[in-house]
Amino acid sequence: MAAPLGSASASNPVVWSDRAGAGLTTLVLYLLLAVVGMSLPSCAPAISQQLRDEAGTPPPFQDLTAHPQEYQGRVVILGGYVLETQNEPRATVLTILQAPLDFENKPKSRDLSQGRFLITSDRFLDPEVYAKDRRLTVGGRVIGVREQSVGGTTYRYPIIDAQELHLWPKEVYPPYPPPYYPFYNPWYDPWYPWGYRHPWWW
To answer: Given this model, what pLDDT does residue 152 score?
Structure first.
């Protein structure tokens, strides 16, 4: 028996509701995929895949500092914080405070540093851009060692001939964490017991 006309029309909204729900789910999935896709490039390593493959497993930085001649000609990926930028007649020399790298090849805290190294580049690197305390990652070849005085002590700097340089953006922090932004409390009184007074109707 055919369903009454009124019954058939009552079922239509259910059908359309199911279709609308499926369409909304598909739209949400597309939006999520788009957001994930846009976020992937920002998580890509700073150094190219080709150079990372050539570098292979990084040597311990302390070994590189102690025995740079054993790594002569080897490609390495290092990073840290700019201490000084000097433009010489034929090259720019960067003095770097080494720091371990994360999965993006981004230098971690300078408190984890194990020493210093030098970067040479045949390009002009402006000291105002490659300024002190900027984070930097380099992929390049070990070409030697240079001895320089640091606080009255002779220090051996491994020298890296830069093939790729990545200068990380400056990190800007708010003056206060969000939950602790200063606000005005009309009942705060530093001279009152417990620091707060109350209005007369409390």
So the answer is: 81
* Range list of β-strands (E), the chain: 75-87, 92-98, 116-121, 135-150, 153-167
Percent helix, percent strand, percent coil in the chain, to nearest 5: 30, 30, 40
> Stretch 98-104: mean pLDDT, rounded?
94
Residue 61 CB burial class (10 angstroms; 0-12, 13-18, ≥19): buried
114 CB contacts (<8 Å, ≥6 apart)? Answer: 61, 62, 65, 98
Question: Does pLDDT of 15 surpass 60?
Answer: no
Among 41, 36, 168, CA closest to 99: 168
| Same domain, yes or no: 28 and 58 | no
* Contact (Cβ atoms closer than 8 angstroms) between residue 123 and residue 32: no
Query: Do residue 35 and residue 103 come from a single domain?
Result: no
Within a domain: 86: yes
Question: Is the dihedral angle over the CA atoms 108, 114, 115, 117 positive or is it negative?
Answer: negative
What pTM value is reported for the model?
A: 0.65
Q: Which domain holds residue 15?
A: 5-41
What angle (nearest 5°) sits at the alpha carbon of residue 110, between those of residues 113 and 177? 155
pLDDT at 61 over 50: yes
Give the three-class secondary structure for 113. Answer: coil
